[in-house]
What does this fold into?
Amino acid sequence: MSEVMTGVPVHVSMIMDGNGRWAKERGKDRVYGHFEGVESVRACVEAAIENGVRYLSLFAFSEENWNRPDAEVTALMGLMVKAMAEEMEKLHRNGVRFMVLGNRARLSDEINSTVDSCMELTKDNDRLTMIIFLSYSGKWDIMQAALKMAEAISEDPGKKIEIENRGVAAFDEFLVTAGIPDPDLIIRTSGEQRISNYLLWQGAYSEFLFTDILWPDFRKKEFCDALAEYGKRDRRYGKVK
It folds into this structure.
């Protein structure tokens, strides 16, 4: 990781917030906001490709979101399957690799089957990697990584010394994001200024941008504005210049 931030971020991550409020302001059901939010996803994917971003990740559904009303959860899951089915050929043609990360054990067989098909179709694409965090939470990710690491050491005690020698970088390989660079920039829409249990380990040195814009209104211009703001910042990783 470089000491000074220059140019375009390699990895931009989005906390897509404000769909429900956007719909409520228009006298619509919350689900209407989620449908409109898909247009913002399309816009951000296009903007990421046009600006040379290599990884775009989207926090679509948290572990905590399972506590929402059943009707909304069902509608959200249906929307995700529909969006994947409708968008995947276009993403594939545009060289986008598609990934879903999270606690997939909680997802239905239908969703997991669709996810597997989409990931297989696009696995060799390298223009942009689009990551959907689905049924994900940072604490869950750290816990499952710790359990995997403990299991690895239990099976081969010699790994303990290897892990200790490598330091925190060794832990990265047990996270669901193994092999994916940490986000350079995390953007949250809708005016909330918190990370809501998202990428707690991976976001340790990310730049954050909080905007009052609701997610359905966050399109190409807003994405490019965020990149411009990122370009003004200086990342030192604890060092003094």
